[in-house]
Design brief:
Blueprint lengths: L1 H21 L2 H4 L7 H9 L4 E7 L16 E8 L3 H14 L7 H15 L6 E10 L2 H13 L2 H4 L3 E5 L4 E3 L2 E3 L7 E7 L1 E2 L2 E2 L8 E6 L10 E6 L5 E2 L2 E2 L2
Antiparallel strand pairs: 1-2, 2-3, 3-7, 4-5, 4-10, 6-7, 8-9, 10-11, 12-13
């Protein structure tokens, strides 16, 4: 009887160990212990981030970038209102500034700034941060001019969030690239008629936006899909 019980308990512990081993690092490690590699993964390859890559077909003078590779543009979409994304940004800054070597006053300043950033109120809005880049300087400058010239009025009928029920919410604010930055922000209301637009029960969260067709790349419409059931952080749906 004892032998049977021993094996049963062993199986339970093995199962629990396997579950812990399979958990993502952001679920089982405090953010201020994340490595640079882990931060990079969360910010580029996690449930809160998706890429849209537009690539030319074939290799010719007109379809080749400055690097000799196929001409391409890459958009990266990130839910910056999600707490784990902001935590990864703070941790990256900690590592870059060698936080552990800072003096008490510098640490206090850093901590206060980080606290303000991490505790920002996103209860009413969803912030989608978009970066873009290409492998052709000339065509990338065209892309710069396009996004720098965009306004809320120009985009409000072409940028949406959708849930799996087919409902959509339109853009409420657009923040264009600043200076030499190749990034901009789409901001959406988090609630419609007093209710969350997206819930954990939704099978998908989709972003639709229009982009310029430069060098024949793409068809002018970007569709990115995110999975709410994977966007869980500390037991909550984070986006």
């Amino acid at each position: 009887m004892k032998k049977v019980l021993y094996f049963a308990l062993s199986a339970i512990f093995l199962a629990a160990g396997s579950a812990a081993f399979g958990a993502d690092f952001w679920e089982n490690k405090p953010f201020d212990t994340w490595s640079q590699k882990e931060c990079s993964k969360l910010l580029t390859d996690s449930p809160w981030v998706e890429d849209l890559t537009l690539m030319a077909e074939g290799i010719s003078q007109s379809t080749t970038g400055d690097d000799g590779q196929q001409l391409n543009f890459k958009y990266q979409i990130q839910f910056r209102s999600a707490l784990p994304v902001r935590q990864a940004m703070v941790r990256q800054m900690q590592l870059a500034q060698k936080y552990d070597t800072l003096g008490p006053e510098q640490k206090q300043q850093f901590d206060q700034s980080a606290k303000t950033f991490l505790s920002a109120d996103f209860s009413d809005v969803v912030v989608v941060y978009v970066t873009y880049k290409g492998n052709s300087q000339d065509k990338s400058r065209e892309l710069d001019r396009y996004w720098q010239s965009q306004t809320m009025d120009l985009l409000k009928n072409n940028v949406f969030l959708r849930n799996s029920k087919g409902e959509q919410v339109a853009l409420s604010k657009f923040i264009a690239p600043q200076g030499a930055e190749r990034s901009f922000q789409f901001i959406f209301p988090r609630q419609i008629n007093g209710k969350p637009f997206i819930a954990l029960e939704d099978k998908s969260l989709q972003l639709e936006f229009s982009y310029p067709v430069i060098g024949g790349l793409g068809n002018g419409k970007g569709f990115l899909e995110f999975k709410p059931k994977k966007m869980i952080f500390q037991g909550n749906f984070a986006y």
